[in-house]
């Protein structure tokens, strides 16, 4: 329960739940006030010839009130979670207010258009009520979107950020030992991949559409795995193919050495992820890379982007490995 309270805006939740209910109650009360001046049954759908479908008064009022409540809840509740951006919460609060008022306006126009009639077949939707009510709903929604104060609340993300800030304050070297970077293949590789797959796919679109779709999917899949994300911190090295598939995870204590080096992808079997014997590589291009020697005899190679970034990654890995070894020696003593 505590986690739920920390993740939602209580004031926005109260409004999101209460406003549609109060609006629906007001609609029901007003409908019963004019009940004696309405025909029975009421018209609920019109075509070119006039009223086409009819329903009892109780059904129209009951379904209408339920629509006001359910549509209002469906939109307004989107402004309640604190995890969402403040701008989005403001937009959803304004949109929820407008939608609730618009549904009520349509229902009111249906009822007012049948006032004083003995037979609902002669009725029409009151255009004046619909136009004025819709304008008011839109205007009030804009006002609500601007005046709603989506307060920033303290969350678990803020707790984590504060812990990290305190750690950096206590240990200034922490920032030097942590880095994250993306590496990717050269633009010429993507151009060649597009020529080899997208051009044939365009030619096949008319004859075999499904085969063209398969080629496009394969091209996107191959292009994604020509990107890699490298993360270094005091826990060690982690490498993610396509940015999210973890293919390397080396604890800091298992690193013997890390050195920058110029490599050729052909020497490792080509671009992408490769594993042969004791050698594992993730290369998105030939050129600067980082070679990591593990304490178990395995060797890892990952593209480093430029010579400068490869050197930074190697130095950071050397520092965290040395720190991990010193920590292990201290623990043994």
Structure overview:
With 333 residues, this protein is α+β, with helices and mostly antiparallel strands. It folds into two domains: 146 residues, no CATH class; 123 residues, Pleckstrin-homology domain (PH domain)/Phosphotyrosine-binding domain (PTB) (PH-domain like), CATH 2.30.29.30. It has a five-stranded mixed sheet, with helices on one face. Helix 4 packs antiparallel against helix 5. The longest helix is centred in the first third of the chain and has 27 residues. It is elongated, with a radius of gyration of 32 Å.
Give a concise summary.
The protein is of the alpha+beta class and 333 residues long. Helices cover 52% and strands 21% of the residues.
Radius of gyration: 32 Å
In terms of DSSP E residues, the strand content is 15-25%
Low-confidence stretches: 329-333
- Give the overall shape: elongated
* Percentage of residues in helical conformation: 40-55%
Quickly count the domains. 2
Count of DSSP-assigned helices: 9
Terminal CA distance reads 46 Å
How do the helices and strands follow one another from N- to C-terminus? HHEEHHHHEHHEEEEEEEEH
The number of distinct β-strands equals 11
The major sheet is characterized as: 5 strands, mixed
Mean of residue pLDDT values? 86
Give the helix/strand class.
Answer: alpha+beta
Order the strands across the largest sheet as they lie in space.
Answer: 7-10-11-9-8
């Amino acid at each position: 329960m505590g986690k739920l309270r920390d993740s939602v805006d209580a004031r926005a939740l109260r409004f999101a739940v209460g406003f549609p209910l109060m609006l629906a109650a007001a609609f029901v009360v007003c409908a019963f006030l004019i009940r004696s001046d309405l025909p029975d049954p009421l018209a609920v759908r019109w075509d070119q010839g006039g009223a086409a479908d009819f329903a009892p008064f109780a059904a129209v009022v009951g379904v209408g009130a339920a629509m006001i409540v359910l549509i209002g809840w469906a939109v307004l509740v989107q402004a309640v979670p604190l995890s969402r951006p403040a701008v989005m919460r403001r937009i959803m609060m304004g949109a929820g207010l407008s939608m609730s008022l618009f549904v009520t306006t349509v229902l009111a126009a249906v009822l007012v258009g049948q006032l004083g009639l003995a037979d609902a077949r002669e009725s029409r939707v009151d255009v004046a009520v619909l136009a004025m009510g819709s304008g008011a709903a839109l205007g009030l929604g804009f006002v609500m979107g601007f005046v709603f104060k989506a307060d920033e609340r303290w969350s678990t993300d803020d707790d984590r950020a504060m812990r990290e800030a305190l750690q950096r304050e206590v240990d200034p070297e922490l920032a030097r030992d942590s880095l994250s970077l993306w590496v990717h293949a050269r633009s010429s590789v993507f151009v060649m991949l597009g020529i080899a797959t997208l051009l044939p796919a365009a030619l096949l679109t008319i004859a075999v559409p499904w085969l063209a779709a398969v080629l496009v999917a394969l091209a996107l899949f191959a292009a994604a795995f020509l990107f890699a994300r490298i993360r270094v911190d005091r826990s060690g090295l982690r490498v993610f193919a396509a940015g999210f598939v973890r293919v390397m995870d080396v604890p800091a204590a298992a690193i013997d050495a890390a050195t920058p080096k110029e490599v050729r992808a052909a020497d490792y079997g080509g671009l992408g992820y490769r594993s042969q014997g004791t050698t594992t590589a993730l290369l998105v291009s030939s050129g600067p890379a980082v070679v990591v020697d593990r304490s178990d005899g395995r060797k890892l190679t990952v593209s480093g982007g430029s010579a400068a970034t490869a050197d930074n990654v190697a130095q950071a890995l050397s520092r965290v490995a040395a720190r991990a070894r010193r920590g292990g020696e201290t623990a043994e003593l």
